[in-house]
């Protein structure tokens, strides 16, 4: 009986993810929009930023030319300050303005940098785009973000990242497999979750959001913005095509901490969403463990082997669909990475095991380690203490 239950769970989980991948791929359309708009880009930056020129080159190649780029750093001691200052206010015709935000003991440095940058906006900045330094956007990225705002179809537009491993390792393959799956899931308005890595807003939306109050004591900007947007009735559009290539690299421990921090933030600001993810992923993992244990006991007989093979086959088809999606988005993966994604599916346990570990690692929501800073937060998500370490070049 237990084997049949586990088999049903594993197969239906794999079938559900395949159906969602198919739906996403069938409805994906690469935008070809040319809005006329004055856009201010806002980039919170910290640390050495060795690939800053790559990002700036991608921004300079946008089909919609931004009016200006506001880069906000925490202090002149931040290595990011020296990197941005060396650009001299211009890169490939892109106008760059550098802002020193200062330190705050009551919110994350990212939120502090964002608030300092937003204070530099003027009346000519019709639309504002907040984004992360680790993305490498396609040439149509900015136009796709701003077009729905300019057309009056939305007040806020966002998307999600598409992980692009720079080196092939177990850690990068695992994180990419998990994040590619998340990227092809439907974005339900009831979750009130948005992604701050590419977030476009009208000036009216900024006024309604009242960010000094909304993120004035927060650890992250996007989840509180999503909550506030739902409360105030702002129209939020998550565009299927905005899956932004994001280089992925790092050691196993670093990437595990990255995943854990994502789920710590969800646990703090969207506990219901965290619980849902924990239940779904852990149930699938337990079902797979039961099937493998049954397979060891019963050998190649019974439903266990059949369920494992069917779930793996479905997962491999879904993986191939996601790889095809990545290619359409402009991310052509090398053969080694493609094979690693299929191998992880057929190994049954690594992906759900790693995913469950970062989800449950995020159950302890404080302290949160982010770059060179540790944050203590209370149960409401308010930052109560900030512990800084020196910057490392």
- Domain count: 2
Report helical residue fraction. 40-55%
Q: Point out poorly predicted stretches.
A: none
Task: Please identify the top-level CATH class of the largest domain.
Answer: Alpha Beta
Fill in the CATH topology of the largest domain.
Spore Coat Polysaccharide Biosynthesis Protein SpsA, Chain A
The CATH homologous superfamily of the largest domain is termed Spore Coat Polysaccharide Biosynthesis Protein SpsA, Chain A
What is the count of β-strands?
11
Alpha-carbon Rg, integer? 22 Å
Q: State the strand order across the main sheet.
A: 3-4-2-1-5-7-6-8
Q: In terms of structural class, how would the helical and strand content be classed?
A: alpha/beta
Q: Please work out how many helical segments DSSP would assign.
A: 14
| Overall outline | globular
Helix-strand pattern: HEHEHEEHEHEHEHHHEHHHHHEEE
On the 0 to 100 scale, the average pLDDT is 94
Distance between the termini: 58 Å
Tell me what portion of residues adopts beta-strand conformation. Answer: 15-25%
Biggest pleated sheet: 8 strands, mixed
CATH architecture of the largest domain: Alpha-Beta Complex
What brief labels describe this structure?
393 residues; alpha/beta; Spore Coat Polysaccharide Biosynthesis Protein SpsA, Chain A; 2 domains; eight-stranded mixed β-sheet; three-stranded antiparallel β-sheet; 14 helices; 49% helix; globular
């Amino acid at each position: 009986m237990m084997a049949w239950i586990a088999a049903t769970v594993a197969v239906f989980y794999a079938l559900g993810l395949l159906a969602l991948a198919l739906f996403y791929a069938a409805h994906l359309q690469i935008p070809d929009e040319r809005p006329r708009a004055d856009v201010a880009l806002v980039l919170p930056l910290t640390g050495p930023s060795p690939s800053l020129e790559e990002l700036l080159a991608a921004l300079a190649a946008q089909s919609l030319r931004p009016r200006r780029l506001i880069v906000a750093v925490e202090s002149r001691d931040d290595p990011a300050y020296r990197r941005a200052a060396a650009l001299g206010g211009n890169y490939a015709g892109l106008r760059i303005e550098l802002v020193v935000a200062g330190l705050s003991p009551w919110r994350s440095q990212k939120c502090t940098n964002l608030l300092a940058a937003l204070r530099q906006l003027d009346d000519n900045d019709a639309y504002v785009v907040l984004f992360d330094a680790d993305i490498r956007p396609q040439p149509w990225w900015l136009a796709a973000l701003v077009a729905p705002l300019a057309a009056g179809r939305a007040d806020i537009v966002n998307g999600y990242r598409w992980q692009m491993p720079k080196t092939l390792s177990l850690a990068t393959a695992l994180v990419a497999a998990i994040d590619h799956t998340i990227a092809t899931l439907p974005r339900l308005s009831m979750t009130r979750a948005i992604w701050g890595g590419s977030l476009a807003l009208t000036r009216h939306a900024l006024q309604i959001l009242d960010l000094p109050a909304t993120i004035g004591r927060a650890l992250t900007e996007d989840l509180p913005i999503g909550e506030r947007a739902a409360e105030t009735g702002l129209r939020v559009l998550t565009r299927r095509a905005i899956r932004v290539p994001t280089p992925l690299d790092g050691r196993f421990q670093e990437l595990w901490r990255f995943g854990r921090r994502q789920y710590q933030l969800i646990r703090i600001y969207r506990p219901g969403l965290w619980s849902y993810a924990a239940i779904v992923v852990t149930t699938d993992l337990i079902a797979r463990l039961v099937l493998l244990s049954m397979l060891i006991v019963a050998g190649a007989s019974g439903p266990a082997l059949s369920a494992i093979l069917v779930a793996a086959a479905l997962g491999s088809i879904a993986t191939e669909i996601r790889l095809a999606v990545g290619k359409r988005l402009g991310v052509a993966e090398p053969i080694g990475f493609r094979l690693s994604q299929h191998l992880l599916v057929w190994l049954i346990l690594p992906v759900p095991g790693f995913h469950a570990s970062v989800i449950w690692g995020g159950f302890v929501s404080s302290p949160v380690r982010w770059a060179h800073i540790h944050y203590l937060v209370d149960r409401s998500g308010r930052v109560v203490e900030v512990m800084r370490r020196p910057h490392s070049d």
